[in-house]
Amino acid sequence: MDKDKIIQELTFKAVRSSGAGGQNVNKVASKVVLSFDLANSQSLTDEEKALAEMRLASRLTNEKVVVLQCDEDRSQFRNKDIVIKRFFEMMDNALKEVKPRKPTKIPRAVIKKRIENKRRQSEIKQSRRRPNF
């Protein structure tokens, strides 16, 4: 994944932020919306596209576009930095190779401890019963 090529494929749109904030919210377009067309990307290989499409299925639109937005800061420039950082973290996680889990054997001491606890619990319950003469 070449980050410099991907940055050139990103499209940004500045819109007015929602919520409280008075005149600043009403006048300044500080919210940044990032969109990345995954299907038509030239910087990702076909395997990377397929993997990202599978792992980011809930984040994609019907046209296979990833849309992220940020309105945390009053500055449009800082919001743009934040949303780019989020995008690359998301893509890194999506393209990261997952190590297969190696099943491990349950240690003998753990099995012994579990059985001992069961036996002890059984004795406690036995002692609560009414004696059988």
Automatic annotation (TrEMBL):
Residues 112-133 are annotated as: Disordered. The keyword Hydrolase applies. Residues 16-32 form the Prokaryotic-type class I peptide chain release factors domain. The keyword Hydrolase applies. One of its GO terms (biological process) is rescue of stalled ribosome. It comes from the Bacteria. Keywords: Hydrolase. GO terms for molecular function: peptidyl-tRNA hydrolase activity; ribosome binding; translation release factor activity. PANTHER family: PEPTIDYL-TRNA HYDROLASE ARFB. This is Aminoacyl-tRNA hydrolase.
